[in-house]
Amino acid sequence: MSKRTLNDVSTPDSREEGSAGKKSKLQRENDNNDSRPVSTQAGQGPTITKAEADLYDRQIRLWGLEAQQRMRHAKILVAGVSGLSNEICKNLVLSGVGAITIISDGTVEIVDLGAQFFLRETDIGKNKAEAIAPRVQALNPRVHVEARNTAIGTLSDEFFADFAVVFLCNADLKEMLRVDNICREGGKKFYAADTAGMMGCILCDLSTHTFIETSKSSEKEDAVTTTTEKTISHPRIGEALRGKWGVPDLKALTRQQMRTLKSASDPVYFAFNVLWIFREKMGRLPTAADTDLKALFAMRDTYMNSVECDAAYLPDDMLRSFAQTAGAELSAVCAILGGFAAQDILKVLSGKDAPLDNYFAFDGTEFSGKLLKLPPPPIVMVTPAAAAPVETVDLD
Amino acid sequence: MALPTVTQSLPDADRRWRDIYRYLDRPGPFMAEGFEAGAAVKEFLHSIKILVVGAGGLGCELLKDLALTGFTDIHVIDMDTIDVSNLNRQFLFRASDVGKAKAEVAASFIMRRIPGVKITPYFGKIQDKDEEYYNQFTIIICGLDSVEARRWMNATIINMYDEDDPETLKPIIDGGTEGFKGQSRIILPHMTACYECSLDMQTKPTTYPMCTIANTPRLPEHCIEWASVLEWPREFPDKKLDGDDPEHIKWLLDRASTRARHYDITGVTYSLTQGVVKNIIPAIASTNAIVAASCATEAFKIATNCATPMNNYMMYVGDQGVYTYTFELQKKEDCPVCGAVAIKIQVSPSATLQDLIDLLLDRKDIQLKKPSLRTSATSLYMQAPRALQEATRPNLSKCLSELIRDGEEVTVTDESLPISIQITVRFE
């Protein structure tokens, strides 16, 4: 069988190590767009080099040339280096985005090798971002991959100006809120995600996002394809996560209301919120130690109370298991979350198809994923009569 | 318990595998029945042999996840070499690897990354290996790209099962992807639905009626099919059409474009021509990552019992947001591979043997290409060897009622599949 080979070769002896930071010949080609453009049919605007068309063939057949073109020019910031961010970077770079900047102020330890595929033993002691960048770069020399040894907290607002999408991995809630606000002001798309053992979550604030959806009228040949433009509006992260549920007592709910609650929420969602509260207060993740669990349960009670949800919805057992495995990174879970997250970013960049709107809760023990719309809708409809204050009679 | 020798041989096991061990060191609320925390389950995980079938989109992701999850003795089979169009998702390969064997390059990349893991590649077909080879594995995980390959794998493994030897019961984890969609499933031979049970669920590849292709084309695909199915054999009766040869595609493009212009049809492009001829399926990194990870997680659960494995089929759709649905696919009683009961087929008394064969070719739940039929007493029609085929050919035009009794069981085989289908033929 005769196979086509790449006409232009990637950076020399780039067995695995790319050269991150400096623009390669291919990246400059990307920018100039002047080498061997493929003539596209029907006088379409965007041009892509033949080598890129060959490389991205299988995905262009899925989302089209124009979508690929939009991705090609996008700059993305990935903050935090973990199993999850390794996967996100891999999927984005393979798909051919314009540029990725990876930041972390952490140092590689041996336990990181358990789920971070792009780390090697020789990286132990190095800055995490600087360690994975060359390996991520090697996946696709056309993408400009950069690393910064810095914490997201120290970055000025101006730093974010360059990026179309900002993705925070395993970040503190405080950081998520701050960066989301910056993104809002700058018209950038904001994503955050976290994993804890077999659980994971992805949340986003796309501000106002317009996209097109195509639908065929039937499965037959002569089906008519209609394209509709839709717009969605997201709340800020703070508003999304502080939504009230209005269900302080699960036992008082009707079956219908319980079903509504179950489809609009997930224990995983509450668990992560409690986890983030613990991490913020204690500066670390919880362990299975009795003192930690006691503190965790107390935080759960306070938090659930503040959002008007019965604490019984996030039972002790589940929270204990969550705590026991909170710091554990499992390659497969990171791969799943990383896959969803990356393709959602690609959809947002391409402007095609409905993106996440606006929270995804993943439970790996049952392989169940739930899409939530936050802040939550009213579970229990409050009638005016019931809302009126009850007159108390002094019986003395 | 015997000394945990494999665990001990892994460098820095407690730190490298710290996170995995959290699920194996103590009981938890999600553990499956039969879970026993401690050194034994870790040793088991690290010492069993597993097989990954396919080193492409799913295979690369599978090898990464399985190796990082603690499996240290992994074999991988793939008959393909690396093509540039693989590089948008098969991340163990680089541009400089184009042309090399996928299984070998994948194996060497993983071994360089994860010390203590042994990946044994085989560059060849699954059909090259026999039962003895497959019997050495505890779990088999498939990342294949064709229905035929899956059927072969499914039938081979299920047929291997010997009631008296529990070691021959091999769970199969099967994953598949197409664009934004995919699925992963667990097959426990003779216990859950197997691949053959769900054969009629597979979407049929798009085929166009010959009359449309020959006389009344409306779509660019019709023009391309006309060029490849009708024109090419007419012009080059002795040359086989090669979808990977750019010259062949250019020839087809030229002919198809001319025809399209004549019928006022737009849309014939080089890309579409290639896609139609090679039946190219779009593929992206994220779907492969997700489906492979699901399979790897199931392998971890099956190997350790730390949580209940999927029961038994997970469907994933990523076009609109994210959608997954896990359900229990039912086993078919009359499944040709794992069923106990024969398939009942009704024919008219005047039907010929050829009519019966045509019926079998037509049925979506059987899908054979060149069936051979025999009863316990005699051969009805055998496709091979030549002498037997010639001897049985006259039977094709004979009435079935002349050849078999009403309600007799007929055994149907096909050389492409290691299965035999039992059918009961009734005259109505």
TrEMBL record, chain A:
GO terms (BP aspect) = protein sumoylation
Q: Where is this region: Disordered?
A: 1-49
The entry's cellular-component GO terms read: cytoplasm; SUMO activating enzyme complex
Q: Which UniProt keywords apply?
A: Nucleus, Ubl conjugation pathway
Its Gene Ontology molecular function terms? SUMO activating enzyme activity
Q: Where is the composition biased (Basic and acidic residues)?
A: 13-34
Q: Where are the transmembrane segments?
A: none
Pfam families assigned: ThiF
Compositional bias, Polar residues, is annotated for: 35-47
Superkingdom of this entry's organism? Eukaryota
- The name this protein carries in UniProt is Ubiquitin-like 1-activating enzyme E1A
Q: State the organism named in the record.
A: Powellomyces hirtus
Its taxonomic placement starts with: Eukaryota, Fungi, Fungi incertae sedis, Chytridiomycota, Chytridiomycota incertae sedis
Automatic annotation (TrEMBL), chain B:
- The active site of this protein is located at C211 (glycyl thioester intermediate)
* Domain E2 binding intervals: 345-428
Which reaction(s) does the protein catalyse, per the Swiss-Prot or TrEMBL entry?
Answer: ATP + [NEDD8 protein] + [E1 NEDD8-activating enzyme]-L-cysteine = AMP + diphosphate + [E1 NEDD8-activating enzyme]-S-[NEDD8 protein]-yl-L-cysteine
Q: Which PROSITE patterns match?
A: UBIQUITIN_ACTIVAT_2
Provide a Gene Ontology MF annotation, just one.
Answer: ATP binding
Membership in a protein family: Belongs to the ubiquitin-activating E1 family. UBA3 subfamily.
Q: Which PANTHER family does the record match to this protein?
A: NEDD8-ACTIVATING ENZYME E1 CATALYTIC SUBUNIT (PTHR10953:SF6), UBIQUITIN-ACTIVATING ENZYME E1 (PTHR10953)
Query: What does the record give as the function of this protein?
Result: Catalytic subunit of the dimeric E1 enzyme, which activates NEDD8.
- Give the protein's recorded name: NEDD8-activating enzyme E1 catalytic subunit
Species this protein is from: Powellomyces hirtus
